[in-house]
């Protein structure tokens, strides 16, 4: 760029020199002042003639060179504007750390932060990260089912739920009959290798301030009291941010290389009032304030540009209402589905066949009823044998997944029977192809290009991103190896 700026200055100077040469009566300062003085007097002898001719030739060469440089400059700048927005002649490299001694990744989750919430209200702090970092253009794609526990654990392991075992927020083990719920910390439920385990296995420190699965002792991770907080929703968000900032006050070599920070908003509000309510706007503004508090604290410690911040959500949110219900009791003329055969109703419908029926019988009979036009909202539920679900959902290979799975249209819910309850709110868990289920991804830090948008991607890629930034070997997972290279700047 330096050479190009210089070349664009050259033509204007030479051009003015040329004009002056053609207009001798107007003396100028363009070339050599002694020559211009001479040029104001017509050449008298062969010596002056030779000087004059050589000057003329030099000027012509200067003009030609300048035009050539100008052409090169304009053609290269128009190329970078139209075809590849961020291409420059020298590919950008990752920025070096200025204060920290080793890379640090801070993974932040704002639960239920639907993609687009960042425009509901001014969010200057989130937008500061976006403007100076890399953003998933149309949001981050959650895994199916688009629920909190399956998704947070996919982010942590790079695995689809069928592989990491947390196939729902709650489910029954098919052989033991035991129930998994969100407070189950027995490692037998939690398969795969979460990122905090990978980090400590490589001799680095990890600190988790809430994250589903982080309280489970697995391998070399033992959720120590000082570096692994046990979930407690009553801890104010400010306290969580300040605790994470406190890690940066440790001696350099003791600062954890990986940290998590979790906020349960705006999911809580989304369930109560749906995604389009002033309560959501307020909750989003509050999350933005927390990001501002974090940035301030990191800046005060001189490490903001050194820390790799990855801000995500686990899923989006869609409005639900009592007019969008499907009742299993309406299917009775075709098949009776008792409540104890149903593992979950909404938005993932998961059913074990009632005694005396095969799974395929149940699917056939339910579909007959749903398509008959006699079941209210029946057309908004499709039931599958799990192995017949679309491949893109990656939701069949685990025996923890019940044999019959129903997919609901956006915003619809299933209930066992009619009640007088009237309510509208919000929900998530639906097919991850629905845009409303998307959430945010922002990467900010030395290895993220500034102000760049990348195409949307699935959250199973994030595990590999973290291991790449920390330069450690990750466990096998469902992310693609090339993904990190496509999004991170190469090391300097
Ligand atoms: Zn939720």
TrEMBL record:
Low complexity compositional bias, start-end: 28-44
Record organism: Macleaya cordata (Five-seeded plume-poppy)
Region Disordered, annotated ranges: 1-44
InterPro entries hit by this protein: Alkaline_phosphatase_core_sf, Phosphodiest/P_Trfase
Record keywords, A-Z: Membrane, Transferase, Transmembrane, Transmembrane helix
Listed Gene3D superfamilies: 3.30.1360.180, Alkaline Phosphatase, subunit A
Protein's name according to its UniProt entry: Type I phosphodiesterase/nucleotide pyrophosphatase/phosphate transferase
Transmembrane region(s): 50-74
Skewed-composition ranges (Polar residues): 1-17
Source taxonomy: Eukaryota, Viridiplantae, Streptophyta, Embryophyta, Tracheophyta
Xref: PANTHER family: BIS(5'-ADENOSYL)-TRIPHOSPHATASE, ECTONUCLEOTIDE PYROPHOSPHATASE/PHOSPHODIESTERASE
GO molecular function, one term: transferase activity
One Gene Ontology CC term in the entry: vacuole
Top-level division of the source organism's lineage: Eukaryota
Keyword Thylakoid set for record: no
Coiled coil, from the record: none
